Amino acid sequence: MSSQPVLTGDLSFFDLADLLQLLSADGKSGVVKLSSRYVETPGVIYVLDGNPVNAFCDGREGEEALYALFGWGEGGFEVSREEFPGDRVIQKSAMAIILDALKMVDEGEIEKVGPVQYTGDKMRDESGRIHLPVARGPAFSDYMYLADEEAFRAGDRIIEQGRHGNWIWVVLEGVVKIVKNTSMGSVVVSRVGSGAFVGNLSSMTRPDHPRSATAVAEGEVLLGVIDTRQLTSDLAGLSEDLLYVVRGLEHRLAMISDRAVALKYSGKPMSGLPREIKPVVRQGDHVTKMFSIEAGQAYLVQENGGEKVFLGAMGPGDFIGRLPMFKHVHEPDMASVYASPDLKLSILDTDVLMAEYDKAPNLIKNMIEYTSVCVSLITDLASRNIL
């Protein structure tokens, strides 16, 4: 039989439960292959007469592997007409598997694969302790960029807030805590895992740029050291406009991290927001353009259930608006933008920026996407004062 795909799709639109129901209803046989940027190897499901008979996922086989694949909410799938090469391992029907899996997902028994990994269905346990989710990057495969590997033990400091340095690491194994040090105390603003980056591109393009946070190994951690010469060469090929946007995104991450700490200690969600401002982008608006800030200030405010939270202020060197490559940033989905009376903007050509981004090296695109995920995650934590 042909191994060419007869059906392909996006798991965020048509998930595994829907796909298995479709194959079951029509009594189809074949092979389902799932792919995710956050997993190195594809998941595979063999289907015979509409029922799954075996599955493989990250070293697991059978029912265990199949249930794990229900956690893949992002990625793609393809179905091909291939014969099943082995014995039947899974005995349950498709519908029984689907019902069990959906219940397990709801109860937090199946790990969700994606940019954010939650350790459970709640971020606070019964004692009030906080269990922050883990932000991850796409599965790392750009080994040409690795200059070395470094191992760290629990409590080891990888970088120090306020110090200078242009080293960047990618997390290969383990979890790293990102800590903001303030006069009121130290606060863990995020936890990052495999595929995440420690350090940012601004440290490469602006030598005077200090580290904005401290990174501490939560347990045993293995990091890959990124080859700065190769990365510097790649960055030199980017336009000033794209570098401007990348720096603006990284500034947003530092800004929202600082604001999250301030909200933790003040408990005043609108403190610091001036009165003489007017909206230029409202949360929920349809926005297609992007602007650089030339003068004045722009203020981000999130509205949720009638409550408002001031997220931070931006000025010259920052941007407002929407760029398709930023799936997890602020306006207009997560926040409104208010302007000071002297705000001046210049339009950025999003078509040109997207064309350049699409051709950029994969490592740089992964770092940009990972940063936007962190912005979204910390914004969510800050707006709910969960730190």
UniProtKB/TrEMBL annotation:
Pfam families, alphabetized? cNMP_binding, DUF4388
* Occurrences of domain Cyclic nucleotide-binding (ranges): 148-227, 280-353
Question: What SUPFAM superfamilies does the annotation carry?
Answer: cAMP-binding domain-like (SSF51206)
Coiled-coil stretches, from where to where?
none
Entry's PANTHER family?
Answer: DOMAIN GTPASE-ACTIVATING PROTEIN, PUTATIVE-RELATED-RELATED, DUF4388 DOMAIN-CONTAINING PROTEIN
According to UniProt, the name of this protein is Cyclic nucleotide-binding-like
Q: Per the UniProt entry, what species is this protein from, by scientific name?
A: Desulfoluna butyratoxydans
Q: What is the lineage of its organism?
A: Bacteria, Pseudomonadati, Thermodesulfobacteriota, Desulfobacteria, Desulfobacterales
